């Protein structure tokens, strides 16, 4: 079971801090006891395999609630606290949620939640009661103090149902098994083991996504988890220094903002050991800038919720800047396969392509999750036999490094040519004035699709659209050069920092840019 990773840490480091936040500090022993109490209370409401959701911002009580759900044998359904309440209710309804653990910030929506989720039996307040006479986690901890729960689930049993990123359409409900997540935790820890004897992980990204999974995986090392009180670059950088943070997971967008901040160059970041990034493509040029500032601390793990986290890894040793162009180019890669699953590149018929050719990245083995909840059609469409289709286009170099060229759905067909936005984005990201960018195809009568770049500039910086187009023509040729360059104050992003290209395309197609 996925709770085993935490239990290893609790057995070896009972007195270490598991959660460290203003107003709440829980040792591993205390968090273990809390998880048993929550599991015992849940066992009176749902059977193992029942669906329990948590709706909350990054609150320090969320990890204890998460562990309790996992220990009970229930299926954990993380709800995205940044979604509109209608989307939250819709996903919880689709996932047949029976118990909802909820922060009081959402108390005004209790009636709507009850009306919209027919399977819902109980709503439990994370910190305070959310309805009259309602129970809270604190009451559960008091009434079930000293409880021990010994539920066991098999590797093939469901552990988590989570929403897809939704960057290309409506989110699907991705089923993750205990076996696939245990494989991800084990291989991830092998790829990036802590070096320090007192590791500290800063939780700055949403617990519902990779930050939560990283927290559970690293628990076996007795990692102290510091819950960030703010996600602003200045506050994150200050917390890293004050708390001697050794590990942090961040999406590329937030890394760009951190390294652009003056404190990144002047502060003491000697404790920083691992900056783990993923969830979206990373600018190789900005990665070089980060390495120049902080050194060999960056690690990339490539995967997706359907094949959690560790299809490939670009290690600390790979994050070097050299005069050898072949080695330096690896910064644009996703690393090499970790051994957590088989990896192959396939054509549209499911045939493995020749070395050096582009193909869809496919995976099979214990890391692959069962598919999509109540959606056999989507599960079948994502399979070539027992291979899972990631929807990403990739190519291997001669040394086994995988380069993720683009999402299949993001590829632009313009004037009869296939254009991969990531190649153009890498070039634009290298411009000093650019904070972030996205390249999309917009329907066009003459070209089929018109290559369009949407750019977010650094504060106080300036570059013109004509300059960007000229650079792209000089480096990539006229076919790949954007026909239009638009400047937006902020690109639309998901909670984990992925740029939402579908939102950009929708805005441009509606003519409201």
| Percent range of helical residues | 25-40%
Number of domains: 3
Proportion of strand residues: 25-35%
Low-confidence stretches: none
In the CATH classification, which architecture of the largest domain applies?
Answer: 3-Layer(aba) Sandwich
Query: Can you identify the CATH superfamily of the largest domain?
Result: ANL, N-terminal domain
Number of helices: 17
Rg: 23 Å
Q: Average pLDDT, to the nearest integer?
A: 93
CATH class of the largest domain, please? Alpha Beta
Largest sheet: 9 strands, mixed
Measured distance between first and last alpha carbons: 48 Å
Shape: globular
- Strand order in space, largest sheet: 2-1-10-9-11-12-13-14-15
Which structural class best describes the helix and strand composition? alpha/beta
Q: What's the number of extended β-strand segments?
A: 26
CATH topology of the largest domain: Rossmann fold
Describe this structure as you would to a colleague.
The protein is of the alpha/beta class. It folds into three domains: 3-153, Rossmann fold (3-Layer(aba) Sandwich); 184-407, Rossmann fold (3-Layer(aba) Sandwich); 411-509, 2-Layer Sandwich (GMP Synthetase, Chain A, domain 3), CATH 3.30.300. Helices cover 31% and strands 26% of the residues. It is built from 17 helices and 26 strands. The strands form six sheets. Strands 2-1-10-9-11-12-13-14-15 form a nine-stranded mixed beta sheet, with helices on both faces. Strands 16, 17, 19, 20 and 21 form a five-stranded antiparallel beta sheet that branches. Helix 2 (28-43) packs across helix 3. The longest helix has 16 residues, at 28-43. It is globular and about 70 Å long. The relative contact order is 0.09. The mean pLDDT is 93.
């Amino acid at each position: 079971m996925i709770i085993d990773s935490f239990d290893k840490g609790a057995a070896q480091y009972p007195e270490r801090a598991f959660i460290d936040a203003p107003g709440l500090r829980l040792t591993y022993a205390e968090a273990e006891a809390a998880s048993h109490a929550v599991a015992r209370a849940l066992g009176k409401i749902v059977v193992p395999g029942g669906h329990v959701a948590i709706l909350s911002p990054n609150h320090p009580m969320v990890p204890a609630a998460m562990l309790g759900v996992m220990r009970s044998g229930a299926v954990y359904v993380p709800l995205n606290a940044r979604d509109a309440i209608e989307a939250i209710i819709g996903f919880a309804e689709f996932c047949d949620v029976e118990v909802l653990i909820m922060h009081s910030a959402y108390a005004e929506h209790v009636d709507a939640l009850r009306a919209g989720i027919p399977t819902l039996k109980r709503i439990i307040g994370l910190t305070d009661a959310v309805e009259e006479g309602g129970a809270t986690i604190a009451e559960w901890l008091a009434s079930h103090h000293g409880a021990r729960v010994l539920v066991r689930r098999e590797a093939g049993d469901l552990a988590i149902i989570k929403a897809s990123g939704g960057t290309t359409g409506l989110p699907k409900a991705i089923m993750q098994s205990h076996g696939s997540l245990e494989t991800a935790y084990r291989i991830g820890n092998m790829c990036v083991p802590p070096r320090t004897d007192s590791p500290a992980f800063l939780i700055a990204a949403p617990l519902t996504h990779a930050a939560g999974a990283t927290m559970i995986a690293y628990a076996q090392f007795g990692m102290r988890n510091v819950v960030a009180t703010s996600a602003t670059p200045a506050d994150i950088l200050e917390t890293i220094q004050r708390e001697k943070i050794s590990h942090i997971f961040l999406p590329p967008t937030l890394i760009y903002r951190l390294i652009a901040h003056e404190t990144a160059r002047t502060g003491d970041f000697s404790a920083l050991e691992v900056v783990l990034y993923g969830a979206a493509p990373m600018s190789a040029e900005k990665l070089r800038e980060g390495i120049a500032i902080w050194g060999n601390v960056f690690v990339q793990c490539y995967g997706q919720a359907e094949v959690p986290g560790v299809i490939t890894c670009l290690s600390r040793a790979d994050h070097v800047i050299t005069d050898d162009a072949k080695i330096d180019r690896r910064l644009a890669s996703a690393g090499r396969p970790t051994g957590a699953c088989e990896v192959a590149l396939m054509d549209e018929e499911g045939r493995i392509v020749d070395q050096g050719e582009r193909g869809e990245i496919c995976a099979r083995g214990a890391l692959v999750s069962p598919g999509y909840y109540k959606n056999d059609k989507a599960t079948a469409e994502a399979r070539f036999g027992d291979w899972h289709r990631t929807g990403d286009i990739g190519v291997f170099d001669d040394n086994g490094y995988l380069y993720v060229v683009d999402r299949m759905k993001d590829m632009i067909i313009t004037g009869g040519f296939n254009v991969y936005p990531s190649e153009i984005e890498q070039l634009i990201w290298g411009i000093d004035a650019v904070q972030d960018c996205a390249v999309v195809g917009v329907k066009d009568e003459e070209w089929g699709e018109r290559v369009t770049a949407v750019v977010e500039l650094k504060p106080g910086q300036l570059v013109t659209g004509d300059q960007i187009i000229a650079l792209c023509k000089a480096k990539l040729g006229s076919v790949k050069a954007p026909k239009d360059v638009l400047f937006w104050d902020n690109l639309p992003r998901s909670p984990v920092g992925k740029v939402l290209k579908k939102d950009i395309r929708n805005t441009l197609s509606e003519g409201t840019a």
